[in-house]
Specification:
mainly beta
């Protein structure tokens, strides 16, 4: 289904250059946040409604597709709605989703004709903005510069990596059927929350990379 999405974007997008991901420099922790802080402290688990303006770059086997988006995220109800546009401001699709399903409000005809397009996009958005969350009985590993909560899954495992401040840095799932990673980078203070300014999503099974830059953040509690 990811290949079908890429085929559709080829009809709508132009090639663009993108910077390489820079290595993240980390210092060793002088102290560690508690397990309780790790379980409930990240921004995606706080009850709020977020309005996020984003610029994005989709990369698939050397091809690059610049996009823009407006996302409404209700972290308490675990719902999201994304209006995605190309560089010219043309609305490509308007998709609403929660943990159980999704609804396509509108899309360009080229996208509507692609089988499984809606499911593919919704799955990617769930992994980024409605991801699985750490659980109280997850196993804890302390490393010099990070802490990791993880649990076994059928055919693999799911892990969450936090930095010395307790900011969620990465979610990684590797099983017999899934192989993906979300990295949350460049946290900034916003009101009483810390919000990542850059999000990197990799679907290794399909060779897809998505980079998001949050250009505007608004919160409604």
């Amino acid at each position: 289904m990811v290949r079908l999405l890429v085929f559709a974007l080829l009809l709508l997008s132009q090639f663009a250059c993108a910077p390489l991901e820079r290595p993240v420099k980390v210092a060793e922790c002088s102290s560690y946040p508690s397990r309780r802080q790790l379980l409930s402290g990240n921004w995606l688990q706080q009850p709020a409604i977020w309005h996020l303006r984003q610029s994005a770059l989709l990369e698939v086997r050397g091809r690059k597709f610049p996009l823009q988006g407006l996302l409404r995220l209700d972290s308490e109800r675990r719902e999201a709605r994304l209006v995605a546009m190309n560089e010219l401001g043309l609305v490509m699709f308007d998709l609403q989703l929660d943990e159980q399903g999704q609804q396509l409000h509108r899309a360009l005809p080229q996208l509507q004709q692609q089988a499984n397009f809606v499911v593919g996009v919704a799955d990617s958005l769930r992994r980024i903005f409605l991801p699985p969350v750490p659980l109280p009985d997850d196993r804890l590993q302390q490393r010099p510069a990070t802490q990791r909560l993880w649990r076994p899954l059928a055919g693999g495992e799911l892990g969450f990596i936090f930095d010395c401040s307790g900011d969620l840095q990465e979610i990684r799932q590797l099983t017999d059927t899934d192989d993906w990673r979300v990295a949350y980078r460049d946290y900034k203070n916003f009101a009483d929350q810390r919000i990542p300014q850059q999000i990197l999503y990799n679907d290794y099974r399909h060779g897809v990379r998505l980079t998001l830059w949050l250009t505007e953040v608004k919160q409604k509690k």
